[in-house]
Amino acid sequence: MSVGIVVFPGSNCDRDVRWALEGCVGLTTRFLWHEEQDLSGLDAVVIPGGFSYGDYLRCGAIARFSPVLEAVKAFADSGGPVLGICNGFQVLTEMGLLPGALTRNARLHFICETSELTVHPGPCRWLQAYGAAERIALPIAHGEGRFQCDDRQLADLEAHGQIVLRYSRNPNGSVADVAGLCNRQGNVLGLMPHPERACDPATGGQDGRRLLASLLA
User: Which residue in the list 34, 149, 196, 199 is annotated as catalytic?
Assistant: First the structure.
């Protein structure tokens, strides 16, 4: 099992993801520079957190045009597992792989804290190791994590079970307490919390380990 980790100018969680996947889960990883398009030999792709291209214009707005994401989109469209964490979630919405948009937090402050979440695995391949309505705790660290969509999109997401993570106490004003979404096929997951920071009890609990270890199944 080999996982590609996308690296943009401005990424800062790529090594955290590598540490969690290799050191805590036991998977092999490969960094994918933003100009690459070769995903051969990879079984999954992670778009990590950070500030891709400095978050100029809008979070993820420039990253969506990078060559590597053309390959990632084709990979996802063919059923390949793709995970977007924080800035990676923002990128997935900009790419159109997930609906809606991530905007400035309701109080316009950067938030860095541990957040309690409720898991609704639904069709999401990444969350099948969790029970329905299970409560977990994952760290969040973002200034633009407020999920927004129109009423039609929200009804569609609810109808197809795509809202797979919700905040127990909404920290940023997200519509319907959305913390994470998957696509209808269940192979693409975007979430604002950081599962890679919750894989070791010494550094932030272990509630994120099962998400990353789902690749082993």
Answer: 196
Catalytic site residue 116? no
Angle at 49 between CA 124 and CA 172, to 5 degrees: 75
Residue with tokens 């760290």: 139
Domain that holds residue 15: 2-216
Candidates 24, 86, 124, 149; catalytic one:
86
Is residue 57 pLDDT above 80, yes or no?
A: no
Mark whether 142 is an active-site residue: no
Percent of the chain exceeding pLDDT 70 equals 100
CATH label of the domain that carries residue 166: 3.40.50.880
Q: How much is the average pLDDT of 91-114?
A: 95
Neighbours of 128 (CB within 10 A): 14
Give 52-102 as a DSSP string. GGGG-SSTTTTGGGSHHHHHHHHHHHTT--EEEETHHHHHHHHHTSS-SEE
| Average pLDDT of span 58-70 | 88
Is 109 considered catalytic here?
Answer: no
Chain segment 39-48, per-residue pLDDT in tens: 999 999 999 9
Query: Count of domains in the chain?
Result: 1
